Amino acid sequence: MSPLGVFGGTFDPIHFGHLRTAFELMQSLELGEVRFVPAGDPPHRGMPACDPMRRLELVRAATADQAGFLVDDRELRRSGPSYTVTTLEELRAEMPARPICLLVGMDAFLGLPTWHRWRDLLELSHLVVAHRPGWPAPAGGVLAGLLAERGADDAAALRTECAGRILVQPVTPLEISSTALRELLASGRDPRYLLPDPVREIVRVTACYARTTER
Ligand code: ATP
Asked: Residue 196 C-alpha to ligand 1 middle, in angstroms?
């Protein structure tokens, strides 16, 4: 059974750093699908600049033309903080025997020990860590230890078990962030070539990031 990719994020807004990373991981790991899971109330940060339904609309617009990209709005329908572990528990209950790969960038991986019930994540899914410019892999500490213990050499290891391995995967380095995009949009500049045109058009028409500041 091909693994399921789960790609969570605030996506405030979604950009080519997210999309290209998800696409390359889908191809290199031969994932059957990648589910984009926008967070409603991300526990590790302030409120997103843009409201949840608009962020969802942007993710839908960004992913609509790519086979295998699906949008899962369960964290927006749930009340309370958007805990990834809860999402993985639900998905695991829906598909008990399918390998699940939680896709994260290196910056997110480095913050993993602050996540709610973080040690349970690897009971529920594999972890695939994409390189991200400016974020070197951990050289020591609990995450380096975890990598030594659970690290997988290649994607094949993600198919033989349903959960529990960590694969660090190079992707084309794209130094794009939602933070930089929000600043760019707030100053009235054009985000062209940083995010898909349908997203750019919605952002333009709705002015959802105009005069934005962190909420
Ligand atoms: P912000 O600047 O608001 O923190 P962001 O650009 O980091 O946002 P998120 O929605 O927080 O985007 O990220 C969702 C996931 O995508 C995280 O796992 C993050 O590491 C990963 N990611 C985001 N941008 C990139 C990128 N340019 N390259 C690789 N991974 C990325």
From this structure: 16
Mutate to test the pocket of ligand 1, among 10, 15, 56, 82 (most ligand atoms within 8 A of CB): 10
Domain range spanning residue 170? 4-175
Q: Is the pTM of this model over 0.90?
A: yes
Residue nearest to atom 25 of ligand 1 (CA): 17
Provide the 10 A C-beta neighbour count for residue 181.
24
Q: pLDDT tens digits, the chain, 215 residues: what are they?
A: 899 999 999 999 999 999 999 999 999 999 999 999 999 887 877 889 999 999 999 999 999 999 999 999 999 999 888 999 999 999 999 999 999 999 999 999 999 999 999 999 999 999 999 999 999 999 999 999 999 999 999 999 999 999 999 999 999 999 999 999 999 999 999 999 999 999 999 999 999 999 744 54
Tell me whether residue 201 is exposed, middle or buried, using C-beta atoms within 10 angstroms of its C-beta: 0 to 12, 13 to 18, 19 or more: exposed
Residue 134 alpha carbon to ligand 1 centre in Å: 12
CATH code where residue 69 lies? 3.40.50.620
Task: Report the number of distinct structural domains present in the chain.
Answer: 1
The three-state (H, E, C) secondary structure of 110-144, written as one string: HCHHHCCCHHHHHHHCEEEEECECCECCCCCHHHH
